[in-house]
Amino acid sequence: MNGFIKATVAGLCLGTGLTLVGCAQYRQVVDPCWPDRYNAEARLSVRETFGAQVHNGHVLDQTVWNYHFETDPRSGGPTDRLNAAGMEHLKYLVRRMPAPDPTLYLQTAQEVVGAASLPPDKLALARSDLDNKRIASIQRYLASMMSGRSQAVAFDVAIHDPGEVGIGATGIAGTLKNPLIKGAIPELQNNFKGKMPGVEGVTMTTSGGG
Question: CA-CA distance, 153 to 23, in Å (whole number)?
Fold first, then answer.
């Protein structure tokens, strides 16, 4: 009886030891944090990409573009006077809730008159002069919009040169066929045409006053 008890206890101790050694070896060859570790890395990569897209979109949303300024009716050159679209865009920016973003961006002037024939130094000087005038015009309008508010916001206007915004696509040609535009939809509204059921080539007429 005593020999059986001793053999049983020895077997249990040996089995427990093998189990512990096996668990230790198992955790050395596998990742015990699977799949949480990899799910966290996947979420981080998606959030970083999405965050960059959100930031770029916000910068473009905060941008005052060249077309937000009037054109001189006599010379056709650019001016620093905000047009109606520019003023509405600034109103939209200062009314942002819960508070407006104090960092605005101005697209550097790309419509300098005679830019192609000007020397690089003179072109840079003309562009910088127009940019500074436009910043002053923006600041004046923002000051007038923020006057009377309980909390003043000090806006900072930075100059940048963003790329063209939009997605390249073939334009719709309208309701008339235009073979010059390959891939365009030739007919927008008259795209689907049907016909009355009947014998081909027979004209159906109605007589009487019914």
Answer: 62
Residue range 37-65: mean pLDDT, rounded = 93
- Residues 94 and 101: their CA atoms lie apart, in Å, by 8
Whole-number pLDDT of residue 200: 54
pTM (predicted TM-score)? 0.63
Average pLDDT, stretch 75-102? 93
Reference 63, options 100, 110, 108; nearest CA is 108
- The answer to whether the peptide bond before residue 73 is cis (omega within 30 degrees of 0) is no
Query: What is the pLDDT, as a whole number, of residue 169?
Result: 60
Q: Which two tokens stand for residue 117?
A: 């024939």
Residue 130 pLDDT greater than 60, yes or no: yes
* pLDDT at site 25: 74
Burial of 68 (0-12, 13-18, 19+ CB in 10 A): buried
- Among 107, 105, 70, smallest CA distance to 86 is for 70
HEC assignment per residue over 58-97: HHHHCEECHHHEEECCCCCCEEEEECHHHHHHHHHHHCCC
Distance, CA of 60 to CA of 153 (rounded, Å):
20
